[in-house]
Amino acid sequence: MLTGKQKRYLRAQAHHLNPIFQVGKTGVNGNMLVQVSEALEKRELIKISVLQNCMEDRGEVAEQIADGTKAEIVQVIGNVIVLYKESQENKQIELP
């Protein structure tokens, strides 16, 4: 689990990032979870945008993706989810 201080730090790091995935009306599926996992391994910190036509609640979508990829939810703000997962191969972010 991330501490408040670590989440604050990660939110600041994520501020300039653009969302690299979008969740639409089909919701979260297995293929998407595989791609998100790979992206997290490469980048450690990513943003995912939840589109207007998504039938599920943003919070539920965030939970599903976090559970499926074993990532931490840093923030859900507006229609954007910020996720963090420590990389095994290319560790770039040093948490406080």
UniProtKB/TrEMBL annotation:
<dbReference type="Pfam" id="PF01985">
    <property type="entry name" value="CRS1_YhbY"/>
</dbReference>
<dbReference type="InterPro" id="IPR035920">
    <property type="entry name" value="YhbY-like_sf"/>
</dbReference>
<keyword id="KW-0694">RNA-binding</keyword>
<dbReference type="InterPro" id="IPR017924">
    <property type="entry name" value="RNA-binding_YhbY"/>
</dbReference>
<dbReference type="GO" id="GO:0003723">
    <property type="term" value="F:RNA binding"/>
</dbReference>
<dbReference type="InterPro" id="IPR051925">
    <property type="entry name" value="RNA-binding_domain"/>
</dbReference>
<dbReference type="InterPro" id="IPR001890">
    <property type="entry name" value="RNA-binding_CRM"/>
</dbReference>
<feature type="domain" description="CRM">
    <location>
        <begin position="1"/>
        <end position="96"/>
    </location>
</feature>
<protein>
    <submittedName>
        <fullName>RNA-binding protein</fullName>
    </submittedName>
</protein>
